[in-house]
Amino acid sequence: MKKILYLIIILAVNLSFGQDYSNVVKTYLQQNRTQYSLQQQDVSDISVASQSFSKSMQAYNVYVQQQHQGIKLYNSNSPFLIKDGVVVSAKLSFTPNAAAKVNSVSPSLSAVNAISKAASWLGLPNPSNLSLLETLGDRSYVFSNGNISQYNIPVELVYQKMDDTDSLKLAWDLSIYLMDSTHYYSVRIDALTGDLLDTDDWVVSCNFGEGSHSHNSTESILFGNKTNNSARTIAGGAAYRVFPLPLIGPNDGEDQLLTDPADPMASPFGWHDIDGVIGSEFTTTRGNNVLAQEDANGNNGNGMLADGGSGLLFDFDYDLPRAPFAFREAAITNLFYMNNMMHDIMFHYGFDEESGNFQLKNYTNLGAQGDFVFADAQDGSGLNNANFATPPDGGAPRMQMYLWTAPGDVLGTFMNVNSGPLAGEYLAMDSNFINGTPLPTTAITEDLVLVEDDNGGSSTDPHDGCDTILNSAEINGKIAVARWGGCNGPFKMTQIEAAGAIAVVVVNNTPADPIAMLGGGSNLSIPCIMIYQSDGEAIISALQNGDTVNATLRDDGSGTDPFQRDGDLDNVIIAHEYGHGISNRLTGGPSAAGCLQNQEQMGEGWSDYFGMILTMKDGDLSTNVRGTGTYALGEGIAGRGLRAKPYTTDFALNDFTYDSIKTQVAPHGVGSVWTTMLWDLTWDLIDEYGFDPDIYNGTGGNNIALQLVMDGMKLQPCSPGFVDGRDAILEADDIANGGANRCLIWRAFAKRGLGVSATQGSTDSKADGTEAFDVPPGCELGISDNGADQINFVVFPNPSNGEINIKSRFDVGAATISIFDMNGRKVFGQEIELHQNARVDANGLHAGIYLIQIEGGNRSQTSKLIIN
């Protein structure tokens, strides 16, 4: 079956590829010269850098470079979409009247001397034993690594645009991948003076804490021999013990043994093939898409690979929690699995061979090959970090995954449920009560009992322990469970201790991280810990159903000897890192790797988004809290993660708008604002089309959203900003879906300040844009009686349990809130003062769909409201 699918792929792509679209592009540019302020020579001297066929848009993505006398203008890669022989989309990064802006056509500095100049500017040793290995053209060469780079050094003559003078300087473009993998420099050296004109870094790092250390030398094994794995194994039947998608990691579920998860379309010969012939060449974590190995000594060398034997059975125990070195083969296996899953899933959304994906051998013979991912597990060159280096198509990327000392709030404190459907490890936070008792390192094991009180005081929750406790007999000698809130913390703990509890498990009353409970005036002799709301509510439900839940509480001692977590088990971080490779290859086309170096670029945002959408589950809610790196940080699945705010449609927890990028640090903070917008869009599409757990071929809103995001990257210009990204997604929907989701997309972005009137300014600055909340006529959210097409009020959470928050863009003062059922009957009304935020209590409404009308300050808005 796989062989048949493979032949179909080969036939389809070879029939469709090969047409030269340069004349189509030239005709389009000639017809639109005035619009783009181009001169005749700007149109005539171009080259097609790459092209690919988009199945989703049924059109060709053609990436065109501007040239002057055959010399390329660096980062001029411009995407054209050609459908039925006609250009239907073009985003130009050309320089008008280039001939008048160039300083020379002949270099004074040789290519080999440019390498030495670059090394000097970068603070590297002088290159040694440099030799010319290959001449690719009149102005393009490949030199040996000079003992300063992991890979051979390509050098090409280009023009570098100087933003301060709008001039074009002749330059040598070259790349140097440092021996310690900390930087992969793309450098332009002035071909006349030897000055450093521009530097990009193809290594994108998610640094959080301690930085990298130095590496030793490296040895490339890209096309190494197969002497250790020469016996060909049968295709199929491979099995891997991993934390399978959509699990976030060990904080989200148990490891499982998966059989033959390779996708037959994306990896037709399995994950251990490199020659396109049935039968796997390797029994280790090596194949066409990725080579996963440990790099504990941080030298990028030939580290240990996990070996599944002739049966390709990669069944290695994790037995968490324990030191990462004790489950190294298991960690390598999960890293291998996730890289392959990213390859296979994204293949279905257009990141295929001719679009620049990562494969050693391209089975279709399209695109540049030789570039599978080097994935380093438990990399010893640093802590609390991960990175991904993406050279242009044909250059092998490297992913480095580190160990984490879990610097988040939740550290070293655990609760284990020992049996039943809730069995597993639950992360917690120890209390910090004055005169309290910390959780001991000696385990406490006992049944859990839910606290019941008589609600005789001000509290309305019978399970918070704030009033007279009714079930002291059941609590005596057991571990009590109570919700947080309702009264003074030490007071409730004292009451529960008096009832005979030997420890207290407190369930957080918000989706945020557990907190170190504070307070004085107590002499507690029993330990108290807090767990996540989602974890705790599941336990409370089980206890209310009469289930026996036996648990063990313990402190692993990490306060003095930090308990390390392995980033190789955090699927969101792996997806994030791989995502940098996707966005870098799709923006500007696979031959460009420097199109996401500007300040307003959204690379970190796309990467976070990939981690979020691939770990969505049926039954998730839009208001749930999600974060990047929750496992590595020692958080539960509802942790905030690495970013300043969690990902959720709940404005009370994440109120990011376009203007927020001005105060967020680039690139991670800026990217998190973009992810927030994409997350809102995804949930709006899910509300419209439902959720489909089939991430490969599903038709749900999540699948539609991911496809639009991928196509948007192909359509946007080099060095994009937020407005560019928004417009590309709108354009992708127009081309692929006939604009069926146009208004939905506009409303999703407008809600976060990226409306029609939003201005981007320079994409090299995150400070000069202006947010706006308007939508095009006909896309208004509800009906506005003042003719406005602006989203004036945000209603959240929506769906709601009846507690409704309203955020106003304006201080409207006195306002009227009216709620109507779907028959038009008014079922709720209230007068409020609405300045910036207000709350409305509509708990009396039955579950269903309503319309909420907000009127005040000559503004009116009607929106859909869902009550659970």
From TrEMBL:
Cofactor(s) this protein requires: Zn(2+)
Protein name stated in the entry: T9SS-dependent M36 family metallopeptidase
Pfam family, one: PA
Main localization of the protein described in the UniProt heading: secreted
Domain Secretion system C-terminal sorting: 795-867
Organism: Aequorivita iocasae
Keyword Transmembrane helix: no
Domain of life assignment: Bacteria
Keywords linked to the UniProt accession: Hydrolase, Metal-binding, Metalloprotease, Protease, Secreted, Signal, Zinc, Zymogen
Cell compartments where the protein resides: Secreted
Signal peptide span: 1-22
Keyword Zinc: yes
Residue ranges of every copy of the PA domain listed in the record: 446-539
Family designation: Belongs to the peptidase M36 family.
